[in-house]
Each structure stands twice: as structure tokens, then as C-alpha cells.
Amino acid sequence: MKLLVLGGTRFLGRHVVETAAAEGHAVTVFHRGETRCPLPPGVEERLGDRTSADVERLGAEPWDLVVDTSGMDPETVERSARALAGARRYLFVSTVSVYADVSRPGLNEDAPLAELPAEGGEADPAQRYGALKAAAEAVVRERLGARATVVRPGLIAGPYDPTGRFTYWAERVARGGEVLAPGRPERPVQLIDARDLAAWFLRLGRAERGGTFHAAGPLGGTTMGELLEAGSAALDPAEPVRLRWVGDEVLLEAGAGPWMELPLWLPDQPEYAGFLRLDPSRAQAAGL
User: DSSP label at 257?
Assistant: First the structure.
């Protein structure tokens, strides 16, 4: 395939580029040049700003697959989707944060989406992020129709991860000793490896598979306790790990911040009940 990656130098996009190059595809990376990384031999690099006319020059080429890893808002995505509307397949990387309500476990891709507040209204940053991504999804579908593929990843882990949302636990467990373990050991978590995602994107492109898909680990496949215990066994720290499980109420009373401050921890509260318990069956049926 002739493949264009919008982004492609940080985390997930970098894995898409490396995987596609290893498979022998003709890969072009379009980015601003703010994050530089070693690109595989044969990968073409083009510098430009997708919010400007730079992206329009890409539309003259016959792309088999466009992978958009960097679109964050509908205006920016509209410009790219319009310029690249001739591509055989446009895969937009969205997020599971697009949903208006994640209080129900087993949510599928047809659940209602978040909406931006009316003009002058306010939304917290997390809500606004999801609503912007949802609006960007709509733009891609409108411009590309049946040639649009929308993927909503959950928590992505793997090499090059700049967020610390997963690597915090690897680094902490590797030090050994007493480790604060949040909530209940039986609490489910869902992860997806960036390398698995990248390989699946290419399979979707080759099959010209459209639709909207969750990209998450198996529903109920891993718990926080299993994750930390597996990490302890794999990392073999010099000092044995002693997990100290601390309940949600204690953590909240102490002012611990869920998710970003204490990664992978969401209190057992109704509004979070479905966030790490999404139904991935549609993606699995499509080859994930």
C-alpha cells in the first residue's frame, strides 16, 4: 500500500510507521517537525502544518490508506479529510472518551456520544476532549463515507509511551518494596498495546474495512491485581514487591487524583463503571 501517516513520530503513529515499513509498504510521514525520531529506511518525511494549506498538497497523490493519529478537533480534521477525500481508506484514531455516559459496563460503539456545549457554555477539559473527537469523527464520515474507518482506542500501552499512564506502574514495581495499589485487586482494567493496534490498522486498510470500532483488551480479561502481580514477576526487582491495597475512600480523602495522578485508578463510582469495561467484540470480529 501507499500509506500516509498524519503524525507518526511520537507514540502510536510511530508504531504505525515502523510496522508498515517492516511490511514493505510505501510510507510517508507528514508532521510539523516538533517531535523528531529515527525513521525506518525508505520512509519519506514531509514537514508541514495540517492546519494550513500544507496538507492540501498531499491530496494530489493516490493514497491507499491515510492513518490520522493527530486530529484533535473537527476544524483541523475537516481540512485534512477534505484534502485527502480521494484516498481509498481514511482511518481516524479517535478515543473511547467520546461517550456521553460511561456508567454502564459492556458499552458498544452505538452508545450516545458527547456533544460540545452550546456557545458560551462550559465543559471540563475531559468532556471537551471527547466531544471534539466525536465531532471530528462525524467530519471524517461525512467526507469519506464508506471509505472512513474510525477506531476508538482505550488505554494504549507500549514502547515510546510519553504519558506515564502505564509505564508508571512498570517503573514503580521495578523498584520493589512496598507499593501502593489503588482500589480493589479484582477491579477490571483494559489495555491495548500500540504494536497490536498498528498491525491491525494495516489489516483494516488492506481489507478496506470501514466502520467504527473500540480498540481495547478483552472485556474482563485483566484485573489490577493480575497486572501488578504479572509486572512483579516479569521485572524481578531486587527487593520483593509488597502490594499495599488502599481503598477508594481512603485515596479520595487523601486527595489522590484518579487516572492522571494515580494511573489506571478509577474509583468504584457509578459514573466510571463502564470506562475500562468496553465491549471490543466488533473490533475482534474485524481482526483485532
Answer: P
